[in-house]
TrEMBL record:
One Gene Ontology molecular-function label: UDP-glucose 6-dehydrogenase activity
SUPFAM superfamilies attached to this UniProt entry: 6-phosphogluconate dehydrogenase C-terminal domain-like, NAD(P)-binding Rossmann-fold domains, UDP-glucose/GDP-mannose dehydrogenase C-terminal domain
Entry's EC annotation: 1.1.1.22
Keyword Cytoplasm in annotation: no
Ranges in a coiled coil: none
Xref: Pfam families: UDPG_MGDP_dh (PF00984), UDPG_MGDP_dh_C (PF03720), UDPG_MGDP_dh_N (PF03721)
Reaction(s) catalysed (UniProt annotation): UDP-alpha-D-glucose + 2 NAD(+) + H2O = UDP-alpha-D-glucuronate + 2 NADH + 3 H(+)
Annotated residues for binding of substrate: F155, L156, K157, E158, K210, F255, I256, Y257, P258, G259, G263, K327
Keywords, sorted A to Z: NAD, Oxidoreductase
SMART domains found in the cross-reference section: UDPG_MGDP_dh_C
Active site: C266 (nucleophile)
All residue ranges annotated as the UDP-glucose/GDP-mannose dehydrogenase C-terminal domain in the record: 320-424
Protein's UniProt name: UDP-glucose 6-dehydrogenase
Length: 446
């Protein structure tokens, strides 16, 4: 099938590459000329395992095209994906200006039936807005061309985006048209073998499904972080509690890891956007607000531990930091807890020697060159002459380090661990002061 994807961001590029991989003829359109030129040369704007070879192969084999020419994009596909960004505006609502701009563009150039598919995470009611904008534009052209608008939210995880897209757990389709159901079944047929993963519903329910999924996951994390704060004060160990409750199949082990707060492009933005949506319709979303509040304060856990150890004034101190990205296997630092930590440490006069396996360029881009941030080539180099070690991201390579080397390199044998990577008892036996999240026995009582 011929497919056009507007917006070559995370969602758009991965979806386009995966659709091309199974044989569809996919054209990607973006306003960013540099991005388009780079993609043609095989330079991918994001770090995502498996994406570069997939994009390069399908581009070279002629099933994946990149262009800035919106008109040819509209002409190309009957399927028109909208996968542009929906950044939060000042009050945290999702800003739809890029989505409506694409809708206008499609209506401006279309001459035959199009299926317009909202892939971006958009507030409930967006499909109606897209439809209205397109009808207005067609009216201005004095044309009556048929089209359908579909909500088809994406559930991919950064770091596992290609795999999630190739083997989706579910394909949610919101539409009011039977004909569209057939077209989408054909489009997704290669991903829907063995058992039917397609869940059909009305458009508004599909739009809400995406927010509900992300907000439920964020709720699980904030709930566990709240329990971890209780455990810390009660002298209990949240890691034991996590295993204890995870073993109940109704609760499950997934997404109940306490830590220094969730980040990324989805959870913080989507929880806030659903809060705003609720407020706009006169409903006060108490639970969602609590999820957001717990997460905000959780991001201050590590700086609080540092102050507990070293006092309010951190002038003259240098900290080794392992992990800058909001989670492992990505270079993404959007809403990462490392950013709250860095900024708190700097505010108190400390310097940081940081290492991350992938996010060094991103840190450079965000913070530029400054004396208080030294980006080091290895995790060992980051330790050298630092006062203590802080861990923000659970990269695999941080899980079994050489503790003798850490102790020799640091001025003080102190580790602040925002991801509960180590066994507190073992670290104490090795002579470390070990701060972790919600492991009361090791810190609160000492
Ligand atoms: C998320 C959703 O998982 C995905 O379905 C949706 O489409 C987009 O948003 P992503 O943001 O890529 O994906 O990352 P995810 O793996 O979900 O992690 C989000 C954050 O939660 C990370 O900061 C992670 O460290 C944190 N987290 C996750 C926890 O603190 N504890 C957990 O138990 C799980």
């Amino acid at each position: 099938m011929k497919v056009t994807v507007f917006g070559i961001g995370y969602v758009g590029l991965v979806q386009a590459a995966v659709l091309a991989e199974v044989g569809h003829d996919v054209m990607c359109i973006d306003v960013d000329e540099k991005k388009v030129e780079n993609l043609k040369k095989g330079i991918i704007p994001i770090y995502e395992p498996g994406l570069t070879p997939l994009v390069t192969k399908n581009y070279e084999e002629g099933r994946l095209h990149f262009s800035t020419d919106a008109r040819s994009g509209v002409e190309h596909g009957q399927m028109q994906f909208i996968a542009v960004g929906t950044p939060p505006d000042e009050d945290g609502s999702a800003d739809l200006k890029y989505v409506t701009a694409v809708a206008r563009t499609i209506a401006q150039y279309m001459t035959d039936h199009k299926v317009v598919i909202d892939k971006s995470t958009v507030p409930v009611g967006t499909a109606d807005k897209v439809r209205t904008v397109m009808l207005e534009t067609l009216k201005q052209r004095d044309l009556d061309v048929p089209f359908d608008v579909v909500s088809n939210p994406e559930f991919l995880k950064e770091g596992a985006a290609v795999a999630d897209c190739m083997r989706p757990e579910r394909i949610v389709i919101g539409t009011d048209s039977e004909a569209v159901v057939d077209l989408l079944r054909e489009l997704y047929e290669p991903f829907n073998r063995n058992h039917d993963r397609m869940i059909m519903m009305d458009i508004r329910s599909a739009e809400l499904t995406k927010y509900a999924a992300n907000c439920m996951l964020a709720t699980k994390i904030s709930f566990m972080n709240e329990i971890s704060n209780l455990a810390e004060r009660l002298g209990a160990d949240v890691e034991k509690v996590r295993q204890g409750i995870g073993s109940d199949s109704r609760i499950g082990y997934h997404f109940i890891y306490p830590g220094c707060g969730y980040g990324g492009s989805c959870f913080p933005k989507d929880v806030q956007a659903l809060i705003r949506t609720a407020e706009h319709i006169g409903y006060a979303p108490r639970l969602l607000q609590a999820v957001e509040d717990v997460n905000e304060s959780q991001k201050y856990k590590l700086p609080e531990f540092v102050v507990r150890q070293y006092g309010e004034n951190l002038e003259g101190k240098t900290f080794a930091l392992w992990g800058l990205s909001f989670k492992p296997n990505t270079d993404d630092m959007r809403a990462a807890s490392s950013r709250v930590l860095l900024e708190e440490l700097w505010r108190r006069g400390a310097k940081v020697q940081a290492f991350d396996p992938e996010a060094m360029n991103e840190a450079q881009r965000i913070y530029g060159h400054r004396d208080e941030l030294m980006l080091m080539g290895t995790k060992e180099a980051a330790l050298h002459n630092a006062d203590a070690l802080i861990i923000c991201t659970e990269w695999q390579s941080f899980k079994a380090p050489d503790f003798v080397e850490i102790k020799n390199a640091l001025r003080d044998p102190v580790i602040f661990d925002g991801r509960n990577l180590y066994d507190p008892e073992r670290l104490e036996k090795r002579g470390f002061t070990y701060y972790a999240i919600g492991r009361g026995a090791s810190i609160a009582l000492s």
